[in-house]
Amino acid sequence: MRGCLYLIAVLLVIGWILGLVWWNAGHLIYVLLVLAAISLLLGIIRGK
């Protein structure tokens, strides 16, 4: 499960970076960033 959360977080961060660089997606960029941060935090909390 931990690996799955890290994979989701990495994909969301990559999507955020692509959105930031190439597309003007507005608030979607911030939603992706928040989801990635939450996934990383859940992975860290559940990893202990």
Walk me through this protein's architecture:
- With 48 residues, this protein is mainly alpha-helical.
- It has helices at 2-21, 28-47.
- The protein has one domain (2-47).
- The protein contains 2 helices and no strands.
- α1 (2-21) runs antiparallel to α2.
pLDDT under 50 segments (min length 5)? none
Q: Please state the average pLDDT score.
A: 76
* Radius of gyration of CA atoms, rounded to a whole number: 11 Å
Helix content: over 70%
The 3D shape can be described as elongated
Strand composition percent = under 5%
Number of helices: 2
Structure classification: mainly alpha
Question: Features of this protein?
Answer:
about 50 residues; about 85% helix; 2 helices; mainly alpha; about 0% strand
List the helices and strands and how they pair.
Elements: H1 2-21, H2 28-47
State the gist of this model.
With 48 residues, the chain is an all-alpha fold. Helix content is 83%, strand content 0%.
